[in-house]
Every structure is written in structure tokens, then in C-alpha cells.
Amino acid sequence: MKSKSSFPGAASCYLESTRNMAKSKFEYVRNFETDDTCLRNCYIVVRLDGRNFHKFAEQHQFTKPNDNRALGLMTKSAQSVMEELEDIVIAYGQSDEFSFVFKRTSTWFKRRASKLMTHVASQFSSSFVFYWKEFFGEQPLLYPPGFDGRVVLYPSNRNLRDYLSWRQADCHINNLYNTVFWTLVQKGGLTTVQAEDRLKGKLAADKNEILFSEFGINYNNEPVLHRKGTTLIWEKRDETVTKRMKCPNEGEKDVAVTRSRRTVEAYHCDIIGEQFWEKHPDVLEDDNC
Ligand SMILES: Nc1nc2c(ncn2[C@@H]2O[C@H](COP(=O)(O)OP(=O)(O)OP(=O)(O)O)[C@@H](O)[C@H]2O)c(=O)[nH]1
Ligand SMILES: [Mg+2]
Ligand SMILES: [Mg+2]
């Protein structure tokens, strides 16, 4: 470092000291930060998952196998994430998880993985607590829930659709198992150990058969929310409001004004097949961007 005496005037002395203040000798620690910029042109997926929700569900008396209050709260929190953060084009959730897809051309937070993931996780967690009462009423939240997050990049529309299909297939597999398992316990009088034994090595067709022949339940008639999970996308909706306006020669008058508003809409439908994507062609960008 230069000594003060090497500077001729007071003005340059001041300049040097402010420069030193802005760049302290500690500045070098910045270079320890690693670059986590997400590769260009890829969809950025942030998946959150509830921490130890097995215990959280028990302690908050979630109904088995599906608790509509909990699923509603997860969806509301995911909607808040989409509304508050930029560039999320689609989100998919089931059980205690939600995946958020940033558009492939997003430049939000310079595509820094840690920034994107932590913003999603914190907005989701705070919303989960903030809206708790709306879904659970007077039942208290016993402790602060947490969510882990990860970032995965998908370079093509096919890869991204396969990712979402994988999560929805997981929803189906788990829900079919859980539906039979809890039916055997709740309606069949089996213990949880007996129900587990009964289902060991059973295929999907066997599980459907148990439900149908022993309990008269057609799995396909089970709630679509539980079988398919929740998909959130942006949609344009026309909204008509009445406005009081001043009209020449007529004085004040009520006038209907229609404007187009973007809102987050929830679907509980198949996203593995073509139909959903053909119906919503704007969700994905072209593969040759
Ligand atoms: N009863 C009930 N339990 C649920 C519901 N949704 C999620 N869960 C519970 O949450 C768990 C989620 O599974 P995981 O995410 O694999 O496990 P976890 O206990 O959260 O553990 P980590 O994610 O590894 O921290 C399920 O196994 C259920 O025990 C629900 O609607 N009803
Ligand atoms: Mg979990
Ligand atoms: Mg999970």
C-alpha cells in the first residue's frame, strides 16, 4: 500500500482513502465465491420437498392417505411463488413437493442457481406459514416447517416433459399404493404391518383388483387431485369491471370495462400425454432458441 506522503495534494489523498475504503484488504475473499450460472437455453427446474413431512403430517393430524387442506396449502404457496417471482412458466406439485420451471430464456438473477433456488424456497416456506390458517383454521402450526431445494437443468422440451411426466408417474404410483394400503387398514381392519405384507410384490393391476373386488372401489373414480397432482400455469382471463366515468353531455355514467389479466390457474389433469400441451402451446418455448 502507498504511503500518504507520496501524494502531493489533499484532494488525491482523499481519493485514495475512499478508494481504499471501497476496496478493503478483505476484498479478495469475494474470489472464493463459485460461479453457479445456469447453462443458457436450458429450462431451470427448482424442486422443493418438505423436510421430514412424515413427522409433520403425523403431528398435524393430516388425513390419510391424502389431506386436502395440506394439498390446498401447498398449491396456494406455489401460486404465491409464481406470482411473486419472475419467469416461472409452469409448476407441478404432489405430496410434499413442488417443481417450478423457469423459462429457458430467463435472465432473472443472471441465472444464478443459488439465488433462484433460495428465492423459491423462502417465498414458498413463508407463504406456507402465512396461509396456514386459511386451510387449517384454528388448528395450530406446531413448529416452523422447512423445505429443501435443488436445481436441475433440462436442455430440450422432451427432457423437460419427461421430467414432469416422471413426477406425475411418481404421484400415481404412490397414490395407488397409499390408497390400497389405507383402505386395507381403515376398511379391511388390517394392521399396518399386515397391509404392508399383503402388498409386497403386488403389481398395479393387483392393487386395482384388491380395491375393486374387496372394497367396490374403482381407482379411476378416486379424486383427480390425488391421482394427478396439481399443475399451475399462467392464463389470460378477461375481467369485466364497472367503472364510473364522465361522459360528454351525459354526466357520470357506469361503464363496463373489460381487460385481460394474467392469473395462475390450477389443473388436475394428465400432463404425460399430448393433450395438455396441445391445449396450452404457449407454456414451452421453441427448441431452437
Ligand atoms: N397423511 C398424509 N401424509 C402426507 C400427505 N402428504 C405428504 N405426507 C407425508 O409426507 C411424506 C413425504 O414423503 P418424503 O418427502 O419422501 O419424506 P419426508 O418424511 O418428507 O422426508 P424428507 O423429504 O427426506 O425430509 C409422506 O411419506 C407422508 O408421510 C398427506 O396428504 N397426508
Ligand atoms: Mg419430504
Ligand atoms: Mg416428498
UniProtKB/TrEMBL annotation:
<dbReference type="InterPro" id="IPR025845">
    <property type="entry name" value="Thg1_C_dom"/>
</dbReference>
<feature type="binding site">
    <location>
        <position position="50"/>
    </location>
    <ligand>
        <name>Mg(2+) 1</name>
    </ligand>
</feature>
<feature type="binding site">
    <location>
        <position position="96"/>
    </location>
    <ligand>
        <name>Mg(2+) 2</name>
    </ligand>
</feature>
<dbReference type="GO" id="GO:0000287">
    <property type="term" value="F:magnesium ion binding"/>
</dbReference>
<keyword id="KW-0479">Metal-binding</keyword>
<dbReference type="InterPro" id="IPR024956">
    <property type="entry name" value="tRNAHis_GuaTrfase_cat"/>
</dbReference>
<dbReference type="Pfam" id="PF14413">
    <property type="entry name" value="Thg1C"/>
</dbReference>
<comment type="similarity">
    <text>Belongs to the tRNA(His) guanylyltransferase family.</text>
</comment>
<feature type="binding site">
    <location>
        <begin position="49"/>
        <end position="54"/>
    </location>
    <ligand>
        <name>GTP</name>
    </ligand>
</feature>
<keyword id="KW-0547">Nucleotide-binding</keyword>
<protein>
    <recommendedName>
        <fullName>tRNA(His) guanylyltransferase</fullName>
        <ecNumber>2.7.7.79</ecNumber>
    </recommendedName>
</protein>
<dbReference type="InterPro" id="IPR038469">
    <property type="entry name" value="tRNAHis_GuaTrfase_Thg1_sf"/>
</dbReference>
<keyword id="KW-0548">Nucleotidyltransferase</keyword>
<dbReference type="GO" id="GO:0005525">
    <property type="term" value="F:GTP binding"/>
</dbReference>
<feature type="domain" description="tRNAHis guanylyltransferase catalytic">
    <location>
        <begin position="26"/>
        <end position="155"/>
    </location>
</feature>
<comment type="function">
    <text>Adds a GMP to the 5'-end of tRNA(His) after transcription and RNase P cleavage. This step is essential for proper recognition of the tRNA and for the fidelity of protein synthesis. Also functions as a guanyl-nucleotide exchange factor/GEF for the MFN1 and MFN2 mitofusins thereby regulating mitochondrial fusion. By regulating both mitochondrial dynamics and bioenergetic function, it contributes to cell survival following oxidative stress.</text>
</comment>
<comment type="subunit">
    <text>Homotetramer. Interacts with MFN1 and MFN2; functions as a guanyl-nucleotide exchange factor/GEF for MFN2 and also probably MFN1.</text>
</comment>
<feature type="binding site">
    <location>
        <position position="96"/>
    </location>
    <ligand>
        <name>Mg(2+) 1</name>
    </ligand>
</feature>
<keyword id="KW-0808">Transferase</keyword>
<feature type="domain" description="Thg1 C-terminal">
    <location>
        <begin position="158"/>
        <end position="273"/>
    </location>
</feature>
<keyword id="KW-0819">tRNA processing</keyword>
<dbReference type="Pfam" id="PF04446">
    <property type="entry name" value="Thg1"/>
</dbReference>
<feature type="binding site">
    <location>
        <position position="49"/>
    </location>
    <ligand>
        <name>Mg(2+) 1</name>
    </ligand>
</feature>
<keyword id="KW-0460">Magnesium</keyword>
<dbReference type="GO" id="GO:0006400">
    <property type="term" value="P:tRNA modification"/>
</dbReference>
<dbReference type="InterPro" id="IPR007537">
    <property type="entry name" value="tRNAHis_GuaTrfase_Thg1"/>
</dbReference>
<dbReference type="GO" id="GO:0008193">
    <property type="term" value="F:tRNA guanylyltransferase activity"/>
</dbReference>
<feature type="binding site">
    <location>
        <begin position="95"/>
        <end position="96"/>
    </location>
    <ligand>
        <name>GTP</name>
    </ligand>
</feature>
<keyword id="KW-0342">GTP-binding</keyword>
<feature type="binding site">
    <location>
        <position position="49"/>
    </location>
    <ligand>
        <name>Mg(2+) 2</name>
    </ligand>
</feature>
